[in-house]
Amino acid sequence: MSENNYKLKIDHLKTFFFLDEGILKAVNDVDIILYHGESIGIIGESGCGKTITVQSILNIIQDPGLIVDGKISYRLNDEHQIDLTAIDKDGLEMRNIRGNEISIIFQEPMTSLSPVHTVGFQVIENIKIHQEKNKKLAKQKALEMLELVGFSSPNHIYDSYAYNLSGGMRQRVMIAMALSCNPSILIADEPTTALDVTVQAQILDLLENIKKKFNTSIIYITHDLGVIAETVDRIYVMYMGKVVEHGSVKDIFSNPLHPYTQNLLKSIPRIDLDIEKLEAIEGNVPIPLDPHWQCGFYNRCPDAIAGQCDTKMPSLSKIKNQEVRCFLYSDEIEPKDEWDTIYG
Amino acid sequence: MNGTQSMDDSKILQATNIKKHFSAKKNFFGKSKNIVKAVDGVSLSINKGQTFGIVGESGCGKTTLGRCLIRAIDPTSGEIKLTKNNGEEVNLESLNDSELRAYRKYFQMIFQDPYSSLNPRLTVGEIIKEALLYFDLDLKNIDDKVIEMLKIVGLEDHHFHRYAHAFSGGQRQRIGIARALIAQPDFIVCDESVSALDVSIQAQIINLLIELQKKFHLTYLFISHDLSVVKYISDYIAVMYVGKIVEQGDKKIIFENPKHPYTHALLSSVPIPDPFKKKVRTILPGEPANPTSIPLGCSFHPRCKFAKDKCKNEIPDLMKIDENHDVACHYADQIKLDKLF
Asked: What would be the CATH architecture of the domain defined by B8-234?
């Protein structure tokens, strides 16, 4: 696919949180590209910046967070593209994009639905704002969506409240809401983390069918490497607010390059294999609060080169079909920009 | 970690026909309208020094069972026999509260959520010490013991005076483990003990649990919904569905040759972190039965593609079909299940 055929392109995105303790560089120079009809995965442990990255796409970063640098280009159609960071975050244009063009399924189905409104009210809300002003037709559309996500009696669900539903059913409602305006990008932020494996299989199956049916591009965010292996085409591995590795799902799983990716894959128990001993990564997942100008994985890395990895920042370099940010493969150094020099 | 012991005298805990029924929604006269059969007739025996894994979907009763076994809650009926390391046998269900207290030090629990299971007003030292004070154990050099325990679980002595909020999730779970171990128990219930942790930290804690098991000859009851973790850590596995064990056996048997259609579907739902492997996936329709209105017959029959008339009327018993392998399915020997991995 050519570079210009993208649906969404994130360039040098920096989203920082200005705290009393210092600057939390949650997303620090991230480049992501998403093509039409493709699914990509962003993986990493908690605090690595995956959720903030997608919140930046929708421009829903809360105070004291701020997108300080970078560009997020969304291709509306063949001629038009919008930089989502440049438009007013509360303006009409952005509101038209949220829900209508780019939708999100949140992590916790238990808390993301309103307890005091019926399911129908919540599904119809989105449709009424973006597409169908006529209440009757909007309801019809909502019922269609509920049926699409696998409810056998959508009328009954329409009048239910969230507390009447189980976790899996709530997640289906969330998906119905997200899909109700036929978005071209669907963001699934840990869509199955809170669910049982049997329900998880149902939901993943559903998302797969939706992708085929509507040619929707999907961004999966998860820490579950099993889910990622089964659902996406390409993977971005994030650590300390930066992409440390990027490649096709097959390349990353068969030939992980970055020591973090390698060790992450070795540290998971496998249901399909007998593993003698898990190789844990020592230490804790660090928080990118005023991070040092060094490789973020330096302190936990078994292959770290002293004098090199702790004083310079490797840049994301192309190695065959993958991209990796590690001095083991390339000596390229990331240039410092004003944010790194002043607040580094 | 070897699952070969099966002599009767090596059992640490034997439970017979455990039931725990909760009554929900009382009517005006105080009579229960709905009875939730959270655990409905479970028998199991746990070998000393082994890890007994319990898996199942949420709401299947695995946590309730774990709590009943150590009488953190009282079972409605059933017998629990605990064999101490010196061979003495106790019937746990017959003890009253003060008698029970004396035995509490033989079994401990490691909880799921490291953020809410530690008292924020106590220092780490006080949290761990509490267990010792409660059991009237030898209180000489108590601080030294706590510090030694901190080192065993991978923390450092200067952590003694800190509060729990200063620690990360993995470190908190280590504190929880230290608290469980300080009374020198024989038997530990780990209820989703690694579920809330990040992948790389989860591996650290799993390795720590295994290391401690060897060091102190511990027996674990490991409850989790994560089948890959249970597979890695357990010797023997029981699969629960709506309050009953539907299949149990040695780890190898359960994962390589499951006989119950539910076990098979459950295992097949787990995504495999290998994009080159072809998956055999059985998608189970619907959700687990509501434990207030369990279907007649086999409780799994509404979701089972092999269900026949017999399944709708007769409850299958947990039958031995092989050495170390029990299945509760009328047609276990007839149905053909695809090879999974």
From this structure: 3-Layer(aba) Sandwich (3.40)
